Amino acid sequence: MSAKLIKGTEIRDAILKEIEAEVNEIKEKHGIVPGLVTILVGENPASISYVTAKIRTAKDLGFHEIQDSQPEDLTEEKLLALVEKYNKDDSINGILVQLPLPKGIDDKKVLNAIDPDKDVDGFHPVNVGRLMIGGDEVKFPPCTPAGIQEMIIRAGVETSGAEVVVVGRSNIVGKPIANMMLQKAKGANATVTIVHTRTKDLAFHCKRADILIVAAGVPGLVKPEWIKPGSCVIDVGVNRVGEKISEKTGKKIAILKGDVDFDAAKEIAGSITPVPGGVGPMTITMLMRNTLNSLKFKLGLM
Ligand code: NAP
Questions:
Q1: 98 assigned to active site
Q2: What ligand 1 atom has the least distance to the C-alpha of 278?
Q3: What is the value of pTM for the model shown?
Q4: What backbone torsions phi and psi does residue 60 show, to the nearest 5 degrees?
Q5: Ligand 1 contact via 298 beta carbon (within 6 Å)
Q6: Nearest ligand 1 atom to alpha carbon 280
Q7: What digits encode the pLDDT tens for the residues 61-78?
Q8: Among 148, 149, 248, 262, which residue's CB has the most CB atoms within a 10 Å radius?
Q9: What is the secondary structure of 273-285 as a DSSP string?
Q10: Cα 193 to Cα 256: distance, rounded to the nearest angstrom
Q11: What residue owns the CA closest to ligand 1's atom 41?
Q12: Interhelix angle 280-298/8-30, nearest 10 degrees
């Protein structure tokens, strides 16, 4: 293998340690800890496991955490009232409404009801606007893109003047990471191209990339011959391609593959993220950092 492996698990552990140290320091000086509430409506098994992981991480870091589980038949009106309750709760710095919401509830209406200063997911239009302006305006970069940028920085990859190609233009990954990479800022200053299903020649653009960020949700979309030798490849894709029995637990688990043909790509790229164990572990980590930062903004520490 020629490429350096960018391990999300190692970067996650380092960042969580930094967050924990800051939480302890703030607790000592100000007698307060970051507060995070996750609101889960219904019993979608994937959502339960995501929320459980988020709350467990928050607890391990010494946050004040609340898991507010609500029944599937909760009305939109009641959910909006719940969001408003946490908007007003001084002990809460971050509000996360786990998606998808049950049918009959308007996701957009609910997300837009979150106080932008507690919107640690960074999906509120106010925070999307702040991200677009950049600089001091940015409060809560969305967690997956923030994790991607942090990995690029910590892997020591030069971004200034780099050709960055982003495959995918979703609101949660493609558009925000492209916007972040073009800002006049640390870990950015890149020349950015976004490609998608209407792009005429995907291979042409990918081949030019010094940093290739792939978030399409199509297993093996990026072929090894599309990768520029020595480039940095960030594979955001998480695709369930089958099932296997876990050696650890003996239980059935999903076989996950990225959007890049990893085995071949690692022989060409200079650095690359694996799937699983790459971008995946970074998302919750950045949620924790946004929640900590929310408290720091409130205390005037940022
Ligand atoms: P999405 O909303 O489905 O967007 C996918 C984007 O990729 C779209 O813009 C689409 O183009 C583009 N695309 C799809 N097929 C393509 C093709 N054949 N050629 C060129 N472009 C193509 O997906 P998402 O939410 O951004 O997620 C993308 C992947 O990242 C998924 O595998 C998801 O599971 C993963 N993900 C991982 C994390 C994490 O690790 N923490 C977080 C979020 C997402 P059009 O706009 O033209 O349709």
A1: yes
A2: 40
A3: 0.97
A4: -60, -30
A5: no
A6: 40
A7: 999 999 999 999 999 999
A8: 148
A9: --SSSSSHHHHHH
A10: 27
A11: 280
A12: 20
Q: Which atom of ligand 1 is least distant from the CA of 167?
A: 21
The tokens describing 220, both together, are 């093996």
Distance 50 CA to ligand 1 centre (A): 19
How far is the CA of 1 from the CAs of 156, 223, 237, 256, 265, in angstroms?
A: 19, 17, 21, 21, 9
Q: For atom 8 of ligand 1, which residue has the closest CA?
A: 168
**How far apart (Å, rounded) are the C-alpha atoms in residues 195 and 208?**
12
Active site (annotated) includes residue 121: yes
- Amino acid type, 124: H
Element (H, E) at 126: helix 125-133
- CA-proximal residue: ligand 1, atom 31 (nearest): 217
298 is catalytic: no
Q: Rounded to the nearest 10 degrees, what angle do helices 143-154 and 280-298 cross at? A: 100
